[in-house]
Amino acid sequence: xxxxxxxxxxxxxxxxxxxxxxxxxxxxxxxxxxxxxxxxxxxxxxxxxxxxxxxxxxxxxxxxxxxxxxxxxxxxxxxxxxxxxxxxxxxxxxxxxxxxxxxxxxxxxxxxxxxxxxxxxxxxxxxxxxxxxxxxxxxxxxxxxxxxxxxxx
Length: 153
Hints:
This protein is α+β, with helices and mostly antiparallel strands. It has a single domain, classed as CATH 2.40.50.140. It is about 20% helix and about 45% strand. The protein contains two helices and seven strands; from the N terminus they run E-E-E-E-H-E-E-H-E. The chain has helices spanning about 60-70, 115-135, and strands spanning about 5-15, 20, 25-40, 45-60, 75-85, 95-105, 140. It has a five-stranded mixed barrel with strand order 1-3-4-6-5. It starts with 6 loop residues before the first strand and ends in a 13-residue tail after the last strand.
């Protein structure tokens, strides 16, 4: 039976990206993205919820994210959900769900000011169109399978 694991997130970077290298020398960059959901309660009150996503980029895409992303920047991240588990030194089990990015588009390269909500969708469409017609502007991640030695955690 076919299956699909695809995630698209558009939001603001929540802190400075963190780049590190695997023991085999592959670059990996992690950053957090905040998305907002605005709704209206039955009483007419506007309510905003913020959801945080951990995003991981590998290889050339990791280098581009580290170079061009900064706290507050608007970003489009596309990839797949991946949950990893590990045991800490004190024996505690931990798990973390991440978006493993294979495409990242830097949406506000002209400055750090946020876009009005009504312009975000238009800006995403513009950047996606640019990314499909201009090579080298937007990173496409390597889709090769990872070896256990490649994981830096």
